[in-house]
């Protein structure tokens, strides 16, 4: 019997396939990945030496955090020269070698683009503060009038968003640290300089950009005061500002559209509606990171707090984003990055159920449609570290907050604030990568710039090469994702939205005429006790494809062990 052409046709025709939709991205934080020269700071030759670890996981793309020249106040998010490599990380020749080695392994390289602000050390700022006519309008300056700064906007890191510059005798705006002045995107010369810089990197054959706080570029004219009760005062005047879509459309037209690349915007306060404008079919970008699921463990809106979180809320966010972007847009799926505490310490149980909860959380981002991003060490289940005192912290944000909390006189000692600052600090994500159980976890032969997590003897890459490690499980998940298009192009459906402990969802891939081609079911118990949900009818005749417990039979049992994840193929 021969199939009709319609029956054999694939539900995703070749011209609708897109490499960045089918990719899994691995994020490398260069300062903490691998140090090749013993100065305690990760570098590019170190990354090259360890590239096989990344390639072996089966990922397709590497996103490299900023490696440009920088005084490193904010670990590279304060750039002093967009076209050179930070000297502690290596040379341009090292970077070119990295790119070649990445491509040789059939992976792609996405670079960080940080163009909302530069470092105060950037030549543009130096010339701007001296009033050089070519650069005087490159940043957002205001004369001092009356008492205090020009408006009440706050820096994301706390305090006023304005600092007074003695040289220019004026205030400049910085939505982040005072060493990170905001560029004036209203100035066409700034836009042109940035677009030229982007093209310069793209001509080197990179494969895309992750765009830092890219929806903050446009500030409301007149820079009006913000709502003083808001969590980030002024945000309504610079998040998704009036000209942002024009700027990004111009960037797309002049630069991005000339290349076959991946573009992902990091966008504070992104909603499904704005995501469609930025990264829908007609939007300038491919996808965007939102933060909604990373705030579940806040107490209210307050970032420096720790609250309880619940699963129905996570599922509601997941549903909203899947349904909202199903016909227009694409999801970027992630738990961790260099700004987030380790996920197993937030939404898992690193003590009793380390492996189970780390693999379960991995399952959640690797079995849904969208492009998953895995942050270095996540594939080992790396955990938050212990912070003894303020000096042990390196993050500009955490150190400032710790100082503020201690100065506030509500807290006597670091011990009082360790639970909050220690839990939230971005340093948790930035402790050195744990390669083996030798001193400093094999990260460096010198003194690491940031302490190594004390659990490195148990949690490390060498140990994870064994059979049932978190890393091996991630590898299997990535393999599975490559094998079944339903995980990439399928439609997400939540079977039990209100279940307090279990997530059960399908990804269904259909032919254009409605016939089901592939249907996958994932069942995840997010709790540390056995939980039940009746799936007996759903899993009849199903294949169990992967489980983080040692199971090889289907068993339509309804009991699920603590932090158990199972993935079935239903059709
Ligand atoms: C977001 C980056 O991810 C973070 O690390 C940085 O501090 C801010 N943007 C400012 O660039």
From TrEMBL:
Give the UniProt keywords, A-Z: Glycosidase, Hydrolase
Looking up Pfam families in the UniProt record yields: Alpha-amylase (PF00128)
Q: Does the keyword Hydrolase apply?
A: yes
Could you tell me which SUPFAM superfamilies the record lists for this protein?
A: (Trans)glycosidases, Glycosyl hydrolase domain
CDD domains in alphabetical order: AmyAc_SI_OligoGlu_DGase
Query: A single Gene Ontology molecular function, please?
Result: alpha-amylase activity
Q: Which NCBIfam families match?
A: PRK10933.1
| Family assignment from sequence similarity | Belongs to the glycosyl hydrolase 13 family.
What is the name attached to this protein's record?
Alpha-glucosidase
Look up and give the organism this protein is from: Haloarcula salinisoli
């Amino acid at each position: 019997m021969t199939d009709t052409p319609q029956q054999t046709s694939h539900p995703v025709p070749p011209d609708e396939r897109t490499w960045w939709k089918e990719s899994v991205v691995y994020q490398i934080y260069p300062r903490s990945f691998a140090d090749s020269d013993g100065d305690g700071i990760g570098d590019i030759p170190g990354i090259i030496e360890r590239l096989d670890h990344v390639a072996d996981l089966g990922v397709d793309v590497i996103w490299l955090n900023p490696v440009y020249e920088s005084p490193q106040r904010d670990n590279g998010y304060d750039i002093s020269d967009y076209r050179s490599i930070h000297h502690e990380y290596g040379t341009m020749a090292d970077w070119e070698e990295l790119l070649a080695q990445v491509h040789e392994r059939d992976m792609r390289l996405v670079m960080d683009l940080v163009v909302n602000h530069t470092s105060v050390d950037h030549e543009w700022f130096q010339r701007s503060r001296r009033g050089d006519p070519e650069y005087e309008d490159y940043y957002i300056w205001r004369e001092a009038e009356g008492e205090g700064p020009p408006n009440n906007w706050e820096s994301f890191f706390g305090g006023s968003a304005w600092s007074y510059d003695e040289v220019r005798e004026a205030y400049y705006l910085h939505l982040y640290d005072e060493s990170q002045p905001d560029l004036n995107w209203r100035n066409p010369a700034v836009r042109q300089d940035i677009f030229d810089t982007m093209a310069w990197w793209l001509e080197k054959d990179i494969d895309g950009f992750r765009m830092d706080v890219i929806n903050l570029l446009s500030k409301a004219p007149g820079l009006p005061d913000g709502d003083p009760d808001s969590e980030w005062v002024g945000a309504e005047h610079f998040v998704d500002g009036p000209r942002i879509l024009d700027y990004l459309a111009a960037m797309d037209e002049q630069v991005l559209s000339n290349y076959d690349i991946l573009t992902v915007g990091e966008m504070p306060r992104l909603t499904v509606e704005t995501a469609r404008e930025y990264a829908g079919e007609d939007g300038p970008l491919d996808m965007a990171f939102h933060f909604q699921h990373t705030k579940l463990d806040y107490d209210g809106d307050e970032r420096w707090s720790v609250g309880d979180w619940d699963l129905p809320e996570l599922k509601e966010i997941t549903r909203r984003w899947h349904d909202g972007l199903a016909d227009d847009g694409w999801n970027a799926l992630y738990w961790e990055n260099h700004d987030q505490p380790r996920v197993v310490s937030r939404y898992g149980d690193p003590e009793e159920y380390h492996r189970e909860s780390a693999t379960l959380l991995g399952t959640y981002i690797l079995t849904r449609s969208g492009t998953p991003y895995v942050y270095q060490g996540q594939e080992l289940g790396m955990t938050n570290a212990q912070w003894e005192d303020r000096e042990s912290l390196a993050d500009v944000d955490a150190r400032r907050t710790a100082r503020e909390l201690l100065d506030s006189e509500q807290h006597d000692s670091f011990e009082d604030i360790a639970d909050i600052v220690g839990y939230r600090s971005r340093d948790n994500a930035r402790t050195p990568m744990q390669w083996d159980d030798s001193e400093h976890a094999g990260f460096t032969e010198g003194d690491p710039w940031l302490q190594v997590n004390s659990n490195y003897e148990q949690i490390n890459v060498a140990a994870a090469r064994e059979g049932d490690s978190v890393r091996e499980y991630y590898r299997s998940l990535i393999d599975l994702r490559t094998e079944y298009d339903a995980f990439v192009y399928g439609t997400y459906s939540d079977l039990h939205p209100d279940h307090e402990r279990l997530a059960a969802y399908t990804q269904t891939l259909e032919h254009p005429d409605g016939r089901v081609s592939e249907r996958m079911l994932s069942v995840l118990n997010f709790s540390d006790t056995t939980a039940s949900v009746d799936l007996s009818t759903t899993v009849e005749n199903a294949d169990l494809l992967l489980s983080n417990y040692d199971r090889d039979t289907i068993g339509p049992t309804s009991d699920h062990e603590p932090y158990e994840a199972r993935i079935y193929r239903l059709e």
